[in-house]
Amino acid sequence: MSWEIKSPQLHGEANQVTQFKVPEVIFSFIEFPEYFIGYYSSELADHLKKNGKEEVKALIEITSDYGKVRGYSVLEIAGEKSWLNEWSYGGTRGSPQRSPWD
Question: What is the maximum span of the chain, computed from C-alpha positions, in angstroms?
Fold first, then answer.
């Protein structure tokens, strides 16, 4: 995955700055750049900065039910197996034709 870090003061919709006081770390799938996973986590941001690599490996466990993906859990990112975070999310940009979950 590729990643970027946004500091809390530098993002938000017109005059609406995020309620989180920690960096937002956004991961995008290399082969599926329209898909992303985000965390509000100082600990994860610090780990990635120390690592220094632009692309990192992530281990993701997928839960499916009758052939449909019901959820996923990120088990490891760049060798880190646990980190404190205030919030996490996942999403897509646009209308991708393919998915990392296929």
Answer: 44
Contact assessment for residue 83 and residue 41, using Cβ atoms and an 8 Å cutoff:
yes
pTM of the model: 0.83
The DSSP line for 10-65 is: G-EETTEE-S--S-EEEEE-SS-TTEEEEEE-HHHHHHHHHH--SB--EEEEEEEE
Cα–Cα distance for residue pair 59/21, rounded to 1 Å: 27
**Does residue 90 sit in helix, strand or coil?**
strand
Q: What angle do CA 69, 75, 77 make, to 5 degrees?
A: 115
* pLDDT tens profile 39-79: 999 999 999 999 889 999 999 999 999 988 899 999 999 99
**How far is 30 from 46, CA to CA, in rounded Å?**
21
Decide: helix, strand or coil at residue 9.
Answer: helix
